[in-house]
């Protein structure tokens, strides 16, 4: 697919997907959703960290409200376009960082929250803006946000539709970290390189275990941990990690 609404670049093991409609604060069009889904689903095997960010002064303002076709069938748009995009992000073979460089509103906020790790610039904000136009939060927001911050804060965010600052989002546990604006780009790059040099298969197993924990009993979770740990214990990365520890040197993980 030729990309018209996103930019996709590689630097070693790190791939960066930039939402690239800055003139409309990177609003999500049908074309952009298809391009995000394609880019994430077709990552080459040597990509070991994916960063999703926005061009210009915002991360993503949510659904493009000028898209009349999407507005005419919101249910179909969610099922046919949003769900494949979000599932592709959740199933990505590499860990995903959302680098929120500015406002993340509506479905744009929930796109960011679908990542494994969210790092925001100090000036960024998160807004569940749906109620402002008489809609219900979607794109996974009603699933992700209550699990991250609890029902009381989730309801407040969604009913009042007021901006939540990056610092407040981090204090609530909605996101992982906040960086000063002037240190944001370098800070995200350093975190991405760290993940790209890590045990990629173990990261996927960690994601699987954490996601399953919300629906599992303790017995089921213990069984899952044992199975995943057994797989990890048979990997070359485990051998390398132990060897590096004993030799008092940094590990050189292959990600396999």
TrEMBL record:
Family, as annotated: Belongs to the enoyl-CoA hydratase/isomerase family.
Top-rank taxon: Bacteria
Keywords, sorted A to Z: Isomerase
Gene3D superfamilies on file: 2-enoyl-CoA Hydratase, Chain A, domain 1 (3.90.226.10), Lyase 2-enoyl-coa Hydratase, Chain A, domain 2 (1.10.12.10)
UniProt-recorded name of the protein: 2-(1,2-epoxy-1,2-dihydrophenyl)acetyl-CoA isomerase
Matching PROSITE patterns: ENOYL_COA_HYDRATASE
GO MF, one annotated term: isomerase activity
The species this protein was found in: Paracoccus sediminis
């Amino acid at each position: 697919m030729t990309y018209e609404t996103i930019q996709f670049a590689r630097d070693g093991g790190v791939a960066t997907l930039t939402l690239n409609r800055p003139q409309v604060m990177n609003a999500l069009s049908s074309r952009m959703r298809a391009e995000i889904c394609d880019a994430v689903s077709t990552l080459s095997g040597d990509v070991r960290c994916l960063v999703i960010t926005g061009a210009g002064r915002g991360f993503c303002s949510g659904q493009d409200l000028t898209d009349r076709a999407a507005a005419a069938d919101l249910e179909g748009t969610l099922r046919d376009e949003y769900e494949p995009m979000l599932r592709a992000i959740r199933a990505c073979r590499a860990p995903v960082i959302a680098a929120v460089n500015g406002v993340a509103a509506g479905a744009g906020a929930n796109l960011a929250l679908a990542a494994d790790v969210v790092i925001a610039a100090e000036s960024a904000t998160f807004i569940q803006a749906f109620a402002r136009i008489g809609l219900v939060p979607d794109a996974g927001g009603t699933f992700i946000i209550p699990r991250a911050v609890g029902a009381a804060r989730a309801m407040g965010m969604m009913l009042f539709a007021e901006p939540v600052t990056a610092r407040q989002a981090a204090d609530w546990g909605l996101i992982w970290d906040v960086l000063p604006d002037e240190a944001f780009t370098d800070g995200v790059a350093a975190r991405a390189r760290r993940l790209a040099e890590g045990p990629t298969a173990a990261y996927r197993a960690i994601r699987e275990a954490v996601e399953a924990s919300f629906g599992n009993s303790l017995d089921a979770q213990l069984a899952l941990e044992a199975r995943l740990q057994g797989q990890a214990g048979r990997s070359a990365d485990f051998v390398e990690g132990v060897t590096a520890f004993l030799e008092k040197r940094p590990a050189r993980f292959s990600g396999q």
